[in-house]
Amino acid sequence: MSTRPTKPRDTTDLAAGLLLMAAAAFFGWQTRELEIGSSLRMGPGYFPMLLSGLLFILGALVALKSLGREDEPFGRIAWRGILFILPAPVFFGLTVRGLGFVPALFVTTLIAAQASVRMRPLPALGLAVAVTILSTLIFSYGLGLPFRRFGPWLGM
Amino acid sequence: MDLLNNLAMGFSVASSLANLLFCLIGVILGTLIGVLPGIGATATIAMLMPITFQLEPVSSLIMLAGIYYGAQYGGSTTAILINMPGESSSAVTAIDGYQMARKGKAGTALSVAALGSFFAGTVSTFLVALFAPPLTAVALKFGAAEYFSLMVLGLVMSVALAHGSVLKALAMVVLGLLLGIVGTDIYTGTPRFTMGITEYADGLNFVALAVGVFGIAEILRNLEDESDREVMTKNINRLFPTREEFREMIGPVLRGTGIGSVLGILPGGGAILASFASYTVEKKISKHPEEFGKGALAGVAGPESANNAGAQTSFIPLLTLGIPANPVMALMIGAMIIQGIVPGPNVVSEQPQLFWGIIASMWIGNLMLVVLNLPLIGLWVKLLSVPYYVLFPIIMAMCSIGVYSVASNTFDLYAVAFFGLLGYLMSKLRCEPAPLLLGFVLGPLLEENLRRAMILSRGDPSTFLTRPISLVILVMALAVLVLVFLPQIRKRRDEVFTESDA
Amino acid sequence: MAHPKLAAALAVALTLAGAASAQDYPTRQITMVVPFSAGGPTDTVARLVAERMSGDLGQQIVVENVGGAGGTLGAGQVAKAAPDGYTLLLQHIGMATSATLYRKLAYDPLTAFDYVGLVTEVPMVVVARKDFEPADFKGFTAYVKENADKLTLANAGIGSASHLCGMLLMQALQAQLVTVPYKGTGPAMTDLLGGQTDIMCDQTTNTTQQIKGGTIKAYATTTAERLPLFPDLPTATEDGLPALQVGIWHGIYTPAGTAPEINERLSQSLQKALADPGVTKAMADLGTAPEPAENATPAALKAKLGAEIARWQPVIESAGVYAD
Fold first, then answer.
1. What's the CATH code of the domain at C189?
2. C34 and C114 co-located in one domain
3. By the CB < 8 Å criterion, does A144 face chain C?
4. Start and end of every DUF1468 domain (chain A) (predicted)?
5. A101 pLDDT exceeds 90?
6. Overall average pLDDT of the A124-135 stretch
7. Measured between alpha carbons, how far is residue B64 from residues B54, B60, B168, B344 in Å?
8. Which is nearest to C127 in space by CA: C52, C36, C9, C222?
9. At what angle do helices B271-285 and B144-158 cross, to 10 degrees?
10. How far is B63 from B23, CA to CA, in rounded Å?
């Protein structure tokens, strides 16, 4: 896809390298309050500092090597997936104690089901009901896991 | 012969009708729960353990062992079918197993895993029976310096896990090491990288990381373009390996068994390395290393055997020292204590029935697993014909439950979402998750043992070279390094344009 | 999430309802939070008593393991739970030491809980690698004082039983050994067995079998009297080190504001459980014994917690070790 007249470069690797360097900088910045110690008596910051530095160098190398190379297509991004898949476990975490296992799992499944354009509302509802009932039977009744089925927010 | 008498006693204990039944129930339950996505062996055992408390001690432990094998195998099944490993070991299986599944060879991958595990299980059971006490003596020679060197060897090997750019694989290992540091420093109590969140004081949850970077990233990839109808080939022509494939798996299975058995004995976390080490070895000696990462049979057969062998021999430190080699073994100790058996060096002599009964049941459990699972493979593979848009909400529900059940920590669920995003980003940037995972697992061990070795040697770094076992391992690491990088450097000139994964 | 105000209102309503119905408590399943992972010694103690208490209360007590941050996560969770008697906490001596070890604790150990009673106090034993030179505890103290800088003292991590006992030992001997922390008792014990470290002081739960097997050497117990398990083993007190008295005591707590009748009811149930011969036997196997009925009471636990917080504060502060 080298349509531009500029010098060839591998945008993906360039991005990867830069992101790695950013991550390294972040970790390095986080170690600033940790005591480094000496190599004989290492402090909590010694190892992380070493690794942050190493990661920064590796990131820089990845970025450097990306120059002078052909690009490879980045492909589509699953925005809808990101929008619905990732919040599903977060919702479960936020509500499993308050709402309880049953409603939290039901909504979690429902949220995740929205990630596909091929999932119609009614089947999604049916799937969420089925998953909730089966999981409650297996995990709560069958295995006796200490989940509250309905939590305090529901007044139960 | 003593050994034969002992084994005979063991089998007579383990093959009482009741114990056989408990073993079978354990294997079935373990498989069924372990096969749920995001629920690995540790979570399965933690969930199922209370069921066994009501039983006789021997029966209870036999059933637990059955659950353990079942869960291990169930975990590999999900790794192969939907790229969702629940343990560090099945993360390796996922690399090539999932690619096999995508090519319509899910059945082959599953049966290779089952047969390899069974063989490894049989051999290592006898190893446990024959050599448990002397092997323990060797394992105790491993101090902090030796473990540090071992972890270095593991890290060097990890680069071979990648099938793309070595440089990026190294970066992923280092990123994994950094993520592994999150939590409280055990030497000073200082929280590191926790952002002030107490819930992360004990580190990030491994299951959250594995589920995120492998499983959820894969779901997102599959959701990129839904008009592209099939995620999996439906054309699954064969469930069992051909004669040729059989021949192909013999070598990897034998080597995997050896590697796994040796590493499993070390109580300080050697078993973690088993499947990684086997994968590296197979890739290195394979005539077609380029197939690894794209569905190589040896990449499933070797690590699965190594993993099962290691799982088996990690009972050695438990039974002879009363010391757990991994979280699963810690749960087993808990179960023993609740049964009134405090594990320790005397279990063999004071409770021979128990000791040999468990050993015999290990083999019986492995046998049941094969008998049970070979027919089930057809069923598992059928799961793949469930439309993907139905499958993934179920996966999300199950892994939410699984991750939460490990420690009842809701922050682990937030970590799942974060690592899902990270994993997806990594896949878009063509960075591979397996080296990251290995770094994450080894990071804490590496640092902990490095610092401990320095404390024990009073700050003398030559301790790594003057202790003979440590020196040998370090030399091996150097050899692997040369083997990995030499071809890379030689090839460099031919690859100016296509260094990344072709 | 959802409506925090509504949730709070509901919680208040629930509390009132809970107080009103204290007479017919319990009417549903009770959760006992153990702030450590399943299978550990604390979890074992919890499951032992939970099972017996369930029988007496007529409702199942399920054990929930909420591990993390030295037990402070699980404790914090119970501190925030509704004080209706359906969420209990079983925690050990860490309840008292965390008050000093953690400077940023999300709750106040002294005011966030009500008390049910003491469960058991696990004794500790000073042990060393099996080829450690001194023959008895008197020789041990002299040898350690003389060679302190050459000796290593293992522990299972900050705040662990072995760490606490180790601090006391060093303070009692006025010797500064090289401490080697581990992640948990398992690896610490492995290295002691392998002779990689020299000394450790740990609960009988972890040491009994190894001492009996001759894989480590026992020097003294940290109890007031000799243990029935090891009648020949002296106490540190009788051999000239009275400062080294420590036991890992376990107590059951409820969130502050729980109706006194409920705590009383739970306490009675606990006393019955502790009197059960099965519990006595199981605890004896672990090298410990159930607390007598007069200690399995709210008053006894309250007094113990207060005294122990006061006792450990100077010890921890002078060692200068904190867990956050």
1. 3.40.190.10
2. yes
3. yes
4. 15-147
5. yes
6. 94
7. 12, 6, 41, 19
8. C222
9. 40
10. 5
> Residue B227's pLDDT is what?
59
CB A112 within 8 A of CB B399: no
CA atoms within 13 A on the CB side of A121: 0
Give me the percent of chain C exceeding a pLDDT of 90. 44
B-contacting residues of C 149-168, CB under 8 Å?
Answer: 152, 157-158
**Model confidence over B432-464: pLDDT tens digits?**
888 898 888 888 888 989 999 998 988 888 999
Strands B191-192 and B183-184 come out as antiparallel
* pLDDT in the model for residue B501: 41
pTM of the model: 0.84
Answer whether B194's CB lies under 8 Å from C324's CB.
no
**What confidence tens digit (pLDDT) does each residue in C126-172 have?**
999 999 999 999 999 999 999 988 999 999 888 888 999 999 999 99
Task: Report A:51-80 residues touching C (Cβ under 8 A).
Answer: none
Regarding whether C32 and C46 lie in a shared domain, the answer is yes
Confidence of residue B4 (pLDDT cuts 50, 70, 90): confident
**Chains contacting C (3 or more CB pairs within 8 Å):** A, B
pLDDT at residue number B414:
95
Tally the domains of chain C. 2
**Closest to B146 measured CA to CA, from B445, B473, B452:** B473
Is residue B239 assigned to a domain?
yes
Partner residue facing B413 (CB), from A44, A90, A110: A90
Range in B38-52, B377-391, C208-222, C276-290 the model is least confident about: B38-52
3-state secondary structure B146-169: HHHHHHHHHHHHHHHHCCCCHHHH
Q: Is residue B502 part of a domain?
A: no
Residue C44 lies in a domain: yes
List all residues of chain B from 100 to 139 with a beta carbon under 8 Å from chain A: none
Residue C171 lies in a domain: yes
Are A55 and B185 a contacting pair at CB < 8 A? no
How close, in Å, is residue B417 to chain A by CA atoms?
A: 5
The pLDDT of residue C18? 47
Is the CB of A153 less than 8 angstroms away from the CB of C10?
A: yes
Q: At what angle do helices A101-113 and A121-135 cross, to 10 degrees?
A: 150
Is residue C20 pLDDT above 50, yes or no? no
The verdict on C271 and C217 lying in the same domain is no
Nearest residue of chain A to residue B39 (CA atoms): A139
Identity of the residue in B268, B333, B346 whose CB atom sits nearest the CB atom of C39: B333
Q: Do B198 and C39 touch (CB under 8 A)?
A: no
User: Shortest CA distance to B497 belongs to which of A71, A74, A64?
Assistant: A71
| CATH number where C84 lies | 3.40.190.150
Number of domains in chain B: 1
Q: Classify residue B501: in a domain, yes or no.
A: no
| Model confidence at B174: pLDDT above 90 | yes
Query: Does one domain contain both C159 and C307?
Result: no
pLDDT tens-digit profile of A28-69? 998 888 888 877 678 888 899 999 999 999 999 999 888 877
Nearest-by-Cβ selection for B188 from A12, A44, A76: A44
- Domain end (from C181, C206, C221): C221
Decide which of B36 and C304 is more confident: C304
The answer for B 207-226 residues in CB contact with A (under 8 A) is 216, 219-221, 223-226
Flag if A81 and B223 touch (Cβ within 8 Å): yes
Put simply, whether A55 touches B (Cβ < 8 Å) is: yes
Indicate yes or no: CB of B430 within 8 angstroms of CB of A81: no
Residue A131 at interface with chain B, using a CB cutoff of 8 Å: yes
Which residues constitute the domain of residue C63?
27-121+247-319
CA distance B49 to B58: 14
Three-state SS at A118: coil
Residue B259 near chain A (CB below 8 Å): no
